[in-house]
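Reviewers of the previous submission asked for a worked example of the structure-prediction workflow described in the proposal, so we include one complete record here. The input consisted solely of the amino acid sequence. No template or homolog information was supplied to the procedure at any stage.
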Amino acid sequence: MADKKEKKSPLFYERNFVWEEIDEKAKKAVFSVSEDYKAFLDAGKTERESVKEAIRRAEKEGFVPFSSVKKLTAGTKFYCENKGKMVALVVVGKEPLEKGLNVVGSHVDAPRIDIKQNPMYEDSGLTLLKTHYYGGIRKYQWVATPLALYGKVIKRDGQSVDIAVGDKDEDPIFYISDLLPHLAKDQNTKTLREGIEGESLNVIVGSLPHDDKDEKNKFKRNILEILNQKYGIEEEDFISAELEIVPAGKARDVGFDRGLIAAYGHDDRVCAFTSLRAIFEVKNNAKTAVALLVDKEEVGSEGSTGMHSEFFNNLVSEMIELENSKRSNGLTLRRTLANSSVLSADVAAALDPTYPSVSEKLNTAVIGKGVTIVKYTGSGGKGGCNDANAEFVGKIRKLFNDNKINWQTSELGKVDQGGGGTIAYILANHNMDVVDIGVPVISMHAPYEVVSKTDVYETYKAYLAFYNNYL
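From that input alone, the workflow returned the following structure tokens.
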């Protein structure tokens, strides 16, 4: 007689792996969405490139620039860009704006290495660029690995030049050197944090001298000549440039079964992509739906393209004016924001079986078990967090259950182990209901991070359900 499968009481809380919960049709959809996601990542290696790709996709789906919208009516679809690094996509709902918005807010910047304003020098037959890292990188992970260079240069005459080198098959790559183990005696005594110093992240960009025998800086001159011939730029143009070093290479499947994706920038472009894909499918929504893609989250959300800027508030005010055909007042804006619901779409730290000691297993996301609800982030005694209220978490939980979405809960590691934050608290400061919801990630902030294809799919479904429902 065959053993009966053990059944647990419904009183228990338990989450299964998504692969065990979905049918063949859904599995095909998982792989299809994942291929689209990989294409999005490959097209958006920086925040500027991500916004450009988001707008390209939006226009293909019928979204128009906000400047061309003359009246707000249900079903109107538009986007509003901010300085090339931030964009909001909106599908107008049936309800007045003052009833609130359904907002999914993600960020499209990622940890990287930036080129300094006066970067180029030569030494020992090499031409190098000085750098300053951006966000919470682990510096030792960025040495001795293929790198690409992306960015924008504003030339002396005001013209703009885009640069993208290192990801095409015919491109050269760039490189940051590391010590050989034979001579690393002193380096080996340092901590991981100290082993590679920030000022040592110098990028090799050349090794051939200029033909001019009388030139003092032959190697540097040669690279400047190449840059001038190809892009028309001079050394002084670095002053007005934003150039970023990112890992070279495309998003790739992981494992014989291809169930995972390794790529640069999952944090947080995976949530940007899933919110985009979801808003493209929004129809007959009651509340106005907004996909908000922001910059600067990895460095505190400051600046004109970060969540602390007035961009979103100004956009909502403009929308209120269009809706009412009269000038918006501050009270209407505040009511609109206070009545809004927000999913702070950011990734969660997944349990890594190789490093389980930093996680508390009962309260840590497991890769492959679905979209993750993070009630609070912060550090220590919840410092700097948005702690979502029980009422809103209850609404989200019911929404996901009603729509058969596989979900789980998590927090950022053990208490006192570390911590971090998202844009959630900034939006919550406007009295919005906000909770962090996103994809669990292994090796977060590494040059190549890992996510499960099923979690990407369930997150897209979760955002779509949120957009389409009145909370």
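Residues 98 and 335 are 6 Å apart (CA to CA). We consider this example representative of the routine output the project will generate in years two and three.
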